[in-house]
Amino acid sequence: MNFLKNRTVLGIACIVLSLLISFAITPLFNAGISQKTAIVRVTADIRAGDQITKSMVKTEEVGSYNLPDNVVKSPDAAIGKYAMAALAVGDYIISTKLTDTPAAENAYLYNLTGEKQAISVTIRNFSHGLSGKLISGDIVSVIAPDFRKQGTTVIPPELKYVEIIGVTASSGHDTDTGNKPEKDEKQLPSTVTLLVSPEQSKILAELEADGKLHLSLVYRGSKENAAKFIKVQDQALEALYPAVTEKSTKEKTEASRNMEQPPHGGGD
Fold first, then answer.
1. Helix 223-240 and helix 198-210: axis angle, to 10°?
2. Same structural domain for residues 95 and 110?
3. Is the same domain home to 79 and 143?
4. pLDDT per residue over 82-111, tens digit each?
């Protein structure tokens, strides 16, 4: 107790402690704060589900103190991936907000091979789209009232069996993926997206412009059985458009031959 009461000793101890803080601890702390590292920042607003492109991000040096361990530090780790949450300008990106696959409600658009196209048509009336009960994978027939102003209602032979690949509400969210926002649960389908050939898409565009089409359900079930209906439809298209089919076959054959041929070497 006498030792603690000695003011001289206490004063010296305080001075030593302050010197230690000033010349040892504080510089180390400041060095840690001032250390820089490169991170990826957002330069344009990114919505959830958007694919990140080069123009949306940039590399920037910031202080490394208190940064999350999973912050993205290289543009290559972000470009080409999909945002799982909305990102605003100036945000840094963490790896848990990125995914390699598109959102479920858009996934079908990334499976197109170039042979067929995706086209949407409007469901203008509740009854025109099977009372809101259509889902992806359904095979439907497209019914055209007063087709091409001829006064008759027909199912065009090009549209007897068509596959639905998306059903979308007026909000833009798909109604049959299970990933829609809670507020959209009771919204009715506004459009359906169909997988079709270029010839089919032209007729659908005409019907969409006329505002007159109905969809009737033909089949709902396994992919294998659904494919049988599409095969029958493809055969019908080949018969209806032999010139187009022949041209397409020739292009595929030529492309296949070009891939099989080795590249020509240079001169000796």
1. 90
2. no
3. no
4. 888 889 998 989 888 888 877 666 677 777
